[in-house]
Known about the structure:
Blueprint: H1 2-14, H2 23-32, H3 46-60, E1 64-65, E2 71-80, E3 85-89, E4 92-93, E5 100-102, E6 109-117, H4 120-124, H5 126-134, E7 137-144, E8 159-165, E9 186-190, E10 201-206, E11 209-223, E12 228-238, E13 243-244, E14 250-251, H6 254-272, E15 280-287, H7 295-302, E16 311-317, E17 327-330, H8 336-349, E18 355-357, H9 367-371, E19 376-381, H10 403-415
Amino acid sequence: MKNFTFLLLSILICGHMSGQDTTFAKGIIRTLASPEMEGRGFANRADLKAANFIASVMGKNNVEPLNHTYFHTYPFSANTFPGEIVLKVNNRLLRPQHDYFYSLSSPSFNKTLRIERLLDDTLKTKPGLTALRKKDLRNSVVITDMIPDRLGDSLSGAVAAIFYQSDSGKALVWRNSDAVKVKPIVTGKLAYNVIRETDTVMECLIETLYIENGEAINVAGIVKGKQFPTRWIIVTAHYDHLGLLGKGNYYPGGNDNASGVAMMLDLARHFALPENQPACSMMFVAFSGEESGLWGSYAFTANLPVSPDSVNVVLNLDMVGTGSNGITTVNGENNPTLHKRMVNINADNEYLTTVKNRGSSCNSDHCPFDKLGIPALFVYSMGKEWPYYHVPGDTGNIPLTEYSDIFRLIRDFLNQCTTRVH
């Protein structure tokens, strides 16, 4: 079945269907969000599976490699959870992703701990903290409503584990930006009321693997321009997601950001067709390490393969799987001419309900380009039809509500970016 899925997708990506058709995008998204990709994180080096897949799509659609190779590497170190993780409370097995998560800064650990409840009111006062430091918590798990990092380092050597309880009704949103350094203390988050008043003991098991001085990959392809081949338009999307929270517990990352990769690849194959050859040269880059702290885009811009002055615009696509409420251009306020161009194209063609504007924010891969002084926008779609973010519910079955119109809008916008403006 797995081989059939990839064979079918190969047929789809070789066909020159219209970019207005979502069939291509759906195939890309479902492949990237599949169990075989294991959440496209560093655990089990699933990121490399995704990189190879993206490069193969570029190659089959006549997108040339950048500087003779699609792969552009950079070093990284990170903690991963490829092995078993277990959390039991009074012998009651909790569900990872739904009932709890361990922070990626946690070390390997296997111990039964007594539960100690310490609420915010206790910890806000100096006497409360003083009393806490006097306790022997080396065999305890502290359950608190204060974020563990805010407890400071004063408890680190004296406590085995700290779990922060989420508020009522809020999903457990996992992040892996804390994977660089392994701390001496286990930390994590618990769903609301998953711990009962009668619970007294907790069994914690974590099997980690720290990758030191590993090699991560960005994937880059180009389409040569017919009028201004030395001027560049760069379209980007990060392909990584959160990966594994223990063996078998993967985060699919359908909207974040298989959707952005799908649209980037869709645009690449569109402009690679002879009849759609752009005026300026175009670079299409899929970044890794975004979820860890924009690692891939910072590494790429540190050794940018073209002069920053030769780049007309960078357009970053991150979470474009909805659109019922239009799109937002992050950094549009700093690039008013570019934002207005997109607004005008949308108004002339009635593609979307709105194109909103936001100020600068270093929340995705446009940021390192912006810091080089390159005009850069980050586009994401808006809509309540897909509320899943950094949770296992962000599967490959995203609605793509306005995918076709977002594609058309961006296609038209890029065709007008023949000169550099702000």
